[in-house]
Amino acid sequence: MRRSTFLALSGLVLAAPALVAAQEEPIVVYLVRHAERADDGATGTADPPLSTAGWERAYLLARVLGDAGLTRIHSTDFVRTRSTGQPTSEATGLDIESYDSSDLIGFARQLRAMPGRHLVVGHSQSTPDLVEALGGDPSEPMAPLEYDRLYIVSLYESGASTVLIRFGNRYDG
Fold it and tell me: Which residues 6+ apart lie within 8 Å of 62 measured at CB?
C-alpha cells in the first residue's frame, strides 16, 4: 500500500512541471482598431484607405509587435483593416486571415482553440466587443477618432486577463 502511494505521489511530482508549463503558456491575442482612415472617412466611400497618419501607425504597430512572436494575423475584409495589418504581415511573413466581425462569439471560440499569439485588426465597436467575447475587460467604449488602443488579452483555461496600452499619437478626446 505504501509503495503504490509513493508511486502515485512520485508520478504527480514528476508531472507537475509539465502541468505548470502548460498553464504558463496562454494564448495571447493583440487587438487593435484599424489605423486612421483617409479624410477620416469623409471620402464618400464605405471602405476608405488609410491616411498618411494611418500608415505611420500601421508601421509603428509592426515595430511594437516585432518581438511578440506572432503566429497569426486576423483582419476584417476592409481596405483599412487589412492595410493596418500589412506592415506586420510583411515583417513576420504571416498571411492576413479574414474573419467575420458579425460573429464575434464564434470567432472568439476559434481564437481560444488556436494556440499561439494572434494580432486581430478590427473596428471601433468590434474590437472592444471581441475583447469582451474573449472574457477580457474592454474598458469604456471606443471614441470615433480613437486609434491608439492596443489590447493584450491572455487566455488561460481558467479565464482571461487584459492589458490596455496606448501606442502612437494619443487620443485626447
Answer: 87, 88, 90, 91
Residue 33 lies in a domain: yes
CATH number of the domain enclosing 53: 3.40.50.1240
pLDDT in tens, 116-144: 999 999 999 999 999 999 999 999 999 99
Residue 56 is placed in which grid cell? 505611420
* Residue 150 is assigned to a structural domain of this protein: yes
Distance, CA of 151 to CA of 156 (rounded, Å): 16
- For residue 4, being part of any structural domain is answered with no
In a domain, 109, yes or no: yes
* Total-model pTM: 0.85
